[in-house]
Each structure stands twice: as structure tokens, then as C-alpha cells.
Design goal:
With about 375 residues, the protein is α/β, with parallel strands linked by helices. About 55% of the residues lie in helices and about 15% in strands.
Length: about 375
């Protein structure tokens, strides 16, 4: 009996051991073979890339589906005279058939119809607008009537990776008119292949709506506000700008010089020196900026880098004076205005009735110039 009891006890003990789950501890990273770190990094990058492709692919498929639904509705309404009431019924039936799917509200179906009407060419849809989010597509439909302009902003959304809110800002501040409009000497200072691309990177004016209602009176104040909002500043500068530093010290001939803001442009493969002025343009600014470009090219520029570009941001300028001031310089320099735009464009019937920002500020300060 004692032996049987001992056997049962043994079996019970063995059963208990089998039910335990033991997870082995991972081997320490220090014991991994050489190259494991880069191997893991590459795998993680591939996984992230494939996950992003999956998301983008799903987005493209959904938008193409929306386009096809919109085309079908348009075709029926145009060829068979179906009225507007078809939308409500269709919304009800699609929701019933696909309860786990969203996007079949009457409002969204009307957008699908409008989307299909705005983009009749499937190839353009597939190549461009299907690659950007649906919300951004709705913004393009709501804010732009011109097909060419709508396509331009769709391409910029894809190229610059603009979100819906940033797309709204760029449309309202008329990016298409500002892009490539700086007064510059790029054609004279750069090879033809580089000058056109460089011109398109810069714009005029730059909109610093994040500065608030008061104009900075000194360069240091303007510079500080831009640094305080560096992320928004970079978004306004455009894709490709990497911030290097503020008040970058350059020592030459026993004297110290300080660059307001220094950037590196990843696509142009060059440094960009940005000088800020709280007031209007002065020809002397070009000479000083040109000196900074020479110093950066000599001290910081890598042999593989292209020529450093200068961007002078001023509150106001005369185009003819700037053009004469740039004449003869071999370093690429662009001059653009900066503006703070608090109020967006008003409806025509209100234009001229409401006071301007300047008038409001003068009223609040009692008409003082201080």
C-alpha cells in the first residue's frame, strides 16, 4: 500500500511539473554575434516599410472603390435619370449589407459622386489622388474648383506628405502662387539642372501665422519666435529642410560672426543660411550674407555638398532694388518676404467692412506707435 501511495504521489508530482510553462530568458545582447544589431535594425525597417505599404495599399483600394461607386451613381443618374432620393436608399441598403463597414452615409456617397465627377480619368485617380487620405481628397473638393489647381495641390500633398490641416493652410495661403517666386540669382549662380530645382524649393512670401498678432521689432525677437515654433517653421519652409543650429558661430581672421539660422537641405544636398530682418530690405544685407556663404563653403561644406544657398527674409522689399543688389554675386541667394497672416481671406461682401489687424492693434493700443 505504501508503495502504491508513493507511486501516486510521484505521478501527481510529475503531472504538476508538466503543467508548468517555463519561458527561457533571451540571451543577453552582449552575447550576440557581431552584426546582430544591424541585422535586427534592417529587419525592423523592413517590417515598418511593409506595414506602411499595407496601410497605403488599403487606402488606395478604398479610394478607388469610392471612385467606382461615385462613377456608378453618376452613370445611372445621367443615363437613366435617377433622382437624388437614390442616395438615401442606397446608403440604407449598403449599411444593411455591410454593417461592419463605415463610409456609406448619404453625405459620403454624395462626396463619392462629386469625387468621380471631379476626377473622370481613372489613371490620374490611381496614380495620384488614391495615394492620399480621403479627408485630404474632401478638402481638395471643397476648396478648389479649378481641375488643374486641384491636381497641383494633390501632387504637392503626396510629394510633401501634407496632412489635412496643413493642406488647408497651404491652399488658403496660396502656395501655388508663392512657390518658386523668390527674387534670386539662382540662374546665374547655379548650373541649369540645379537652378530650376532650387527655385522651386523656395517661395515668397513665407507665412509665419504662428508669430501671433504683434510684429517683432528686432531680429532677435523674430528669431526666438521662430525657434519657439521650430516645427511649424520647418513645415512652412517645406520638405527637406533639417535644422542645424541658431546663432552658429564662425571665427574668421580673429573675429566672430554669427549666422541667424543654419539648415541643411537633404534634397539639394547643401547648407542653407537664413538671415532674418524685422524691417525692410537693405542692399548691405546681401554683402554680409554673401560673406557668410563663403565662410560656410570654406569651413563646413563637405566635398560632396553643393554650393551653400542664402535666404534673406525681410518684412518688405522692392523687387528692382533687390535684383540690382544681387547682380554680380556668384553665390546663390534668394530674397523673400515674411508675413504673419492671422485672418484668412474674407467673403467678398465683408471685404473692406471689417477692420484690418493693424487697425485693431492701433485701437487696442490707443493709437500709439509704440
Amino acid at each position: 500500500m505504501g508503495i502504491k501511495k508513493s507511486d501516486n504521489s510521484s505521478r501527481k508530482s510529475m503531472g504538476q511539473q508538466k503543467s508548468e510553462v517555463i519561458i527561457p530568458a533571451p540571451t543577453a545582447l552582449t552575447e550576440m554575434p557581431k552584426g546582430y544589431g544591424s541585422f535586427l535594425k534592417n529587419l525592423k525597417e523592413r517590417i515598418i516599410s511593409e506595414r506602411l505599404k499595407t496601410v497605403l495599399s488599403a487606402n488606395a483600394a478604398m479610394i478607388l472603390l469610392y471612385w467606382e461607386i461615385g462613377q456608378s451613381i453618376l452613370h445611372r443618374q445621367q443615363s437613366e435619370g435617377w433622382g437624388a432620393k437614390i442616395i438615401d436608399r442606397l446608403s440604407h441598403d449598403l449599411k444593411s449589407a455591410f454593417p461592419d463597414m463605415s463610409g456609406f452615409s448619404p453625405r459620403n456617397l454624395k462626396y463619392m459622386r462629386k469625387f468621380a465627377g471631379a476626377w473622370p480619368d481613372r489613371e490620374i485617380v490611381q496614380r495620384t489622388v488614391a495615394q492620399i487620405p480621403w479627408r485630404s481628397n474632401l478638402t481638395l473638393l471643397d476648396k478648389l474648383d479649378d481641375p488643374k489647381l486641384r491636381l497641383w495641390y494633390a501632387q504637392k500633398t503626396l510629394e510633401l506628405g501634407l496632412g489635412k490641416d496643413m493642406l488647408v493652410i497651404q491652399i488658403e495661403t496660396q502656395l501655388h502662387l508663392r512657390k518658386g517666386s523668390t527674387v534670386n540669382n539662382f540662374k546665374a549662380a547655379l548650373p541649369p539642372a540645379d537652378s530650376d530645382l532650387t527655385a522651386q524649393v523656395f517661395k515668397d512670401p513665407y507665412i509665419f501665422d504662428f508669430l501671433g498678432t504683434a510684429d517683432p521689432r528686432r531680429e532677435a525677437e523674430l528669431e526666438q519666435k521662430l525657434i519657439d515654433h521650430i516645427q511649424k517653421f520647418l513645415l512652412e519652409l517645406g520638405q527637406g529642410f533639417a535644422f542645424v543650429g541658431r546663432q552658429v558661430q564662425l571665427e574668421v581672421g580673429g573675429s566672430d560672426f554669427y549666422i541667424d539660422l543654419l539648415f541643411y537641405h537633404l534634397k539639394l544636398r547643401c547648407y542653407v543660411v537664413v538671415e532674418l530682418k524685422a524691417g525692410g530690405f537693405d542692399p548691405g544685407y546681401i554683402s554680409k550674407l554673401n560673406m557668410y556663404l563663403n565662410i560656410v563653403d570654406d569651413l563646413l561644406r563637405h566635398p560632396d555638398d553643393k554650393k551653400t544657398i542664402g535666404l534673406l527674409l525681410v518684412k518688405s522689399k522692392n523687387k528692382m532694388v533687390v535684383e540690382y543688389s544681387l547682380s554680380g554675386y556668384t553665390n546663390p541667394i534668394g530674397v523673400a518676404n515674411w508675413e504673419r497672416q492671422i485672418m484668412q481671406s474674407l467673403p467678398k461682401e465683408l471685404d473692406g467692412i471689417l477692420p484690418s489687424i493693424e487697425e485693431i492693434e492701433a485701437e487696442l493700443s490707443g493709437g500709439s506707435d509704440e
